[in-house]
Amino acid sequence: MAAPSPAPHAEFDAIVVGAGLAGLVAAAELVDAGKRVAILDQEPEANLGGQAWWSFGGLFLVGSPEQRRLGVHDSLELAREDWLGTAGFDRDDDEWGRRWAEAYLQFAAGEKRAWLREKGIRFFSVVGWAERGGGMAIGHGNSVPRFHITWGTGPGVVAPFAAKVRAGEAAGLVTLQFRHRVDGLVVEGGAVVGVRGAVLAPDDAQRGAPSNREVIGEFELRAPAVVVASGGIGGNHDLVRAAWPERLGTPPATMLSGVPAHVDGRMLGIAEASGARLVNGDRMWHYTEGIQNHDPIWPLHGIRILPGPSSLWFDATGRRLPAPLFPGFDTLGTLEHLAKTGHDHSWFVLTQRIIEKEFALSGSEQNPDLTNKDLRLLAERLGSGAPAPVEAFKERGADFVVADTMPELFDGMRRLSPEGLLDTANIEREIVARDREVDHEFSKDLQLTAVRGARTYRGDKLIRVAPPHRILDPKAGPLIAVKLHILTRKSLGGIQTGLDSRALGADGRPVPGLYAVGEAAGFGGGGVHGYRALEGTFLGGCLFTGRAAGRAIAGRATS
């Protein structure tokens, strides 16, 4: 039997649709203000925290003590230049995205770190350098390292907000209703005054696993404020393909999912039907370094490799990717390049020495040392050898080929490639030519130049970038090839919102009673990132928009 639903006209101050990070932050702010909140989610209780729980826990900060200790000089002005150069705002619909971007930059360079530390959140001492850019100073990318990994990864980010919500539940302020699927918003007199939907049958599925859709009842709840915190569309490949823009080439025929199937985009259409304006649906953020999970939890479960810059990258036919499409430099540029080849996969070729130093896997479950705050395991990461999760994929992953010689490596790659597609002779030419460039300090190979430049940053030299060496050096072996797939992840567009997270309608005016936060709102304004993200800004967007919504509903200032 399902848990009982609250009475149809229960007196809540707000209803939050979605129990992910953005929804929890909004609810936590409301609890702090003594407000009564109902949190609804179609999934079982095991999924509290949503996609943030699965994340690596990276957060974008500007001018932090962690940066300064590593000799990184950052500023709000530099971060603003990087953000605007990356976003490429060029539409009338971008006005609110621009405003959110400026507000978020002020937050990231100001109170964000102190606000999180008050909640017990701490950061790993080495700051990562994600999205290193497209090779021009005024173009896209991070000029300096800004990716701060939470000590505790995604679960560590979720924990204080989940704890606040649980405390609110114990105090009678919060009603948590899992297995409650919202099918519509209740609109009266042009204002959103509640939600209605179906009660789904109980399900003991583990976090992230598919759950049943058996309907056993109906519900209706009312409140003067409804917050849509339902996430994006990454688990619905049909919606991803339907939104795929021409500028990114042909939509992939096959993709892996970086999010569970319940990230289905349902609430976007429901909000639009009730008056909200959806914008920038053609902007998206998917990864090109996806590998099949050898121990999957959800359908087509993929994991992203977070690569250092040394692996050689080849397309499905064996052509080396052009500069500056190096590992870790330009996510969207690489996606666009590969999509236009007409093939859904590409290849890394590297050595054991590179995988030990440069391969990390995205996700809390793939980083037990950081997630569990285990100093012993962390010491192993800093020592010799690859992290245990990486070695597990190398040994068990369907996309890995390990060999002592190039002919053996190419035989393995051909087994994973459509017949006759892979030009291994060209791959060999590229490897041999690249190895010649390693033997002297001068080079026309821009990837080698980038690797040498990266090692001038202490964080990269310590744990992220291997010393340049010949791929064919037997001492660096064995050789490794990894087949890479497109991995769905984030929507960059969504419900357009003002700076108080109120949903805007087609006329640009707020829809009374309706708010949107997190990915459902394009992380702010229907598209705070524009076309591209600087990374560490997705969790941050959930925090910032959820905070804004909670404070606005509670009648509190946002800073």
Automatic annotation (TrEMBL):
It comes from the Bacteria. Signal peptide: none annotated. Residues 13-539 form the FAD-dependent oxidoreductase 2 FAD-binding domain. The keyword NADP does not apply. Keywords: Flavoprotein, Oxidoreductase. It holds the Pfam family FAD_binding_2. InterPro entries: FAD-dep_OxRdtase_2_FAD-bd (IPR003953), FAD/NAD-bd_sf (IPR036188), KsdD_DH (IPR014614), Succ_DH/fumarate_Rdtase_cat_sf (IPR027477). This is FAD-binding dehydrogenase. The lineage of its organism: Bacteria, Bacillati, Actinomycetota, Actinomycetes, Micrococcales.
